[in-house]
Amino acid sequence: MATKTKPTGLEKLFEDQVADLYYAEKKLVSALKKMAGKATDKKLSAAFLAHREETQGQVQRLEEVFEILGKPAKGKKCDAIEGLLKEADGIMEEFQDDPALDAALVCAAQKVEHYEIGSYGCLVTYAEELGMKDAAKLLKETLKEEKGADEKLTKLAESSLNMAGEAHREKKASSPSGKPENLNKTKQSRTPSTVG
Questions:
Q1: Whose C-alpha in 75, 78, 111, 172 is 20 to 30 A from the C-alpha of 1?
Q2: Which segments of 70-159 does DSSP mark as H helices, in order?
């Protein structure tokens, strides 16, 4: 009875990183839901939920890659994603009542996206080098989605979210008391009193 030898070299690295990303993507499914719930901007919340759906599809694609490898789909603890999600939790707590919360959420999410873009880029290259065309095709699809999610977050941040956090600071600085001005308060005109 012939026993299959354990992979070495680039094949071993490829399998290791597929397991790493499988763990990461499964963690992100729940993290994105949490971030969507914390976001105050409706567009940002919707973007997180849309990417959560994409992420569920990415999990399925990784399961297909495991099938190509002839391995059961099993994740390997990803210390990088654990650290990034711990940082995201800290940001959500620290900025929960701050006008820069949404900008902070984008920052945390983009750190994750950049990790994923780097990881999927490597996996695509490894799959191509190993002659795994079907795996490379699946991984390229996910890489494209990750880049798209990063671009959407950048557009949201630059179009409004960063300015929302900054506008609050400007209002605070221009207020005579140094406290944030109540933007909902109707300004009353003042008439000079007459001395009589």
A1: 75
A2: 79-94, 101-129, 133-156
Q: Map residue 72 onto helix, strand or coil.
A: coil
Q: In this structure, is residue 35 part of a structural domain?
A: yes
**Predicted model pTM:** 0.80
Q: What is the CATH number of the domain that holds 48?
A: 1.20.1260.10
32 contacts: CB under 8 Å, gap ≥ 6: 48, 49, 51, 52, 55
Residue 169 lies in a domain: yes
Q: Does residue 193 lie within any of the structural domains?
A: no
Say yes or no to pLDDT of 109 above 60: yes
Mean pLDDT, rounded, of the chain: 85
Whether residue 150 lies inside any domain: the answer is yes
Which residue, among 112, 88, 96, 106, has the nearest Cα to 43 in the 3D structure? 106
What does R_g of the chain's alpha carbons equal in angstroms? 24
Q: Which residues contact 101 (CB under 8 A, 6 or more apart)?
A: 38, 39, 40, 92, 95, 165
Residues 73/63, Cβ–Cβ less than 8 Å: yes
Whether residue 185 is predicted with pLDDT greater than 60 in this model: the reply is no
Domain count, the chain: 1
Q: At what angle do helices 42-69 and 133-156 cross, to 10 degrees?
A: 170
Q: How far is CA 137 from CA 52, 57, 123, 141, in A?
A: 21, 14, 11, 6
